[in-house]
Amino acid sequence: MDRIIPDALMLLAPGCPHCPAVLEGLSALVKDGGLGTLEVVNIAVHPERAEQLGVRSVPWVRIGEFDLDGAQTPAELRRWAELAGSPQGMPAYFLYLLKNGRRAKVEEMARQDPQRLLSLVDLLADEESSMAVRLGIGAVLEELQGSGIASAMVPGLGELTRHADPLVRADACHYLSLVGGEEIAPYLRACVDDPDAAVREMVAEILAEMDEIQEDG
């Protein structure tokens, strides 16, 4: 399959120390075919564009679906251009957002397209994901709890309840409880006899809470 060539948008302002280098890097990508088009907006002339996009500082770049704040090296810009439209793109972008404390952006993108949340399942499956990233995933799901938006994650999280790493299994069970819904129960009941005591204890607590809610209902 041919690679998707993304377009880019850059917001800059006079006096910005990093804008010229970022603009040069993006221009080079256009010249060599890494980007299809590049739109450049001087927000001193068109402040309404920054307001529309909620941009408060420059340089600011959008490559495909990826919004990038601050200075970016030519190598970083090229990497995002290559990731845009690829299966690895959204997991990499969500990892970038969570590492940089931009959890709200993940939530916003999930509300726009719930299927994007499958990228969080990919991050959870990566045993190299840091505790901060895992906590970020949990915080996103807590924010979306009860909305039904994250239901697309259930099959993937269910698969991870059988992961070799007990930490991944425990996280998968916890995240299933945050997603909620009747469809999570079979995955959780399958973990009642998990080899790991911490997983067993967590699952027992989740199922007890679910039974209690059902009885009260």
Automatic annotation (TrEMBL):
Pfam family, one: Thioredoxin_3
Occurrences of domain Thioredoxin-like fold (ranges): 11-80
Protein name per UniProt: Thioredoxin-like fold domain-containing protein
Species assigned in the record: Sulfurimicrobium lacus
Lineage per the UniProt record: Bacteria, Pseudomonadati, Pseudomonadota, Betaproteobacteria, Nitrosomonadales
